[in-house]
Amino acid sequence: MKFGIVAFPSKKLQDLANTYRKRYDSHYSKITPHITLKEAFEADELEIQNISKEIASIAENCAPLKINASRISSFFPTTNVIFFRIEPTEQLKNLHQELQSRINIGKPRHVFIPHITIAQDLTETEHDDIFGQLRMIGVNEQETIDRIHLLYQLEDGSWTTYETYRLTGDEK
Amino acid sequence: MKFGIVAFPSKKLQDLANTYRKRYDSHYSKITPHITLKEAFEADELEIQNISKEIASIAENCAPLKINASRISSFFPTTNVIFFRIEPTEQLKNLHQELQSRINIGKPRHVFIPHITIAQDLTETEHDDIFGQLRMIGVNEQETIDRIHLLYQLEDGSWTTYETYRLTGDEK
Predict the structure, then answer these.
(1) Is the ipTM here above 0.95?
(2) Domain assignment present for A92
(3) Is residue B172 domain-resident?
(4) pLDDT for residue A122 is more than 80
(5) d(C-alpha A37, C-alpha B12), whole Å
(6) How close, in Å, is residue A71 to chain B by CA atoms?
(7) Within a domain: residue A172?
(8) CATH number of A25's domain
(9) Range of B55's domain?
(10) Rounded to whole angstroms, how far apart are CA atoms A130 and B54?
(11) Which letter, b or e, does each residue of A37-48 get, where b requires 16 or more Cβ atoms within 10 Å of its Cβ?
(12) Does B160 contact A8 at a Cβ distance shorter than 8 Å?
């Protein structure tokens, strides 16, 4: 079974992302707007129970995430993905690093660039056109996320929540 | 903000439901297949924290749910909804009743008939045609669900998980 770890931003920020995603994101209907903390990895029923305990222990020691969606960026030319850039704070980098090292399944395919995808699977012309417009509009949202989620993927590509972990650590 | 409480069945049963939902269910892309335990209700940020504590306390005392999807039924003529009927065990009825009485927001709009919707918003002709076919195919799945989820709804109608509660009570 395929699992992934994400943080969902506030309803306000999800609603904002969806105004773009419904038009430009091919994965719009598969998952609500999110920040990926660990990319999809394979695990069976038994493995996931231990992994879930590891995540719980990491979350207990992690303070609520202060995030800042500061501008609209693109991964072009690597991929035609447009996203809300989330400032890569020490806190986010540490959480990602800890999830990666303690759940030692699946090497990261990319450098960790925290983001909320708002457009993907565009042609190059679409990408240039849409990115040009969205970059001008921009985004500027600060908020605190106090929980993360372990999800699993169904055969049709959609994601269901397996477990929720409250971030209850102290600020460092 | 609009909240609801659901139990997601196994990936296997969700995948099976989705083979029908992708063709026949207008809500297919808004939420993965689920059993509704408490219908949508309104609550604000502060209220939901207390409600979440109530749900946690109910879940702690509820044993994992043994469910039996025993046949394909329809709510026709009340609505043109076709669903996997889940046998209404004492355990399910008690959990529903306890959620209803302890989270005293929003009266139930229907008698509690546990089910997984697989088709809705059909015309009467479509309903009769599809129900005729599906009833013959039927369903027969038994499984145990060990957690329930509190979800909230985004402006586009899709649902994001707010919290997960493990069912850790003893069997009665």
Answers:
(1) no
(2) yes
(3) no
(4) yes
(5) 26
(6) 22
(7) no
(8) 3.90.1140.10
(9) 2-166
(10) 46
(11) bbeebebeeeeb
(12) yes
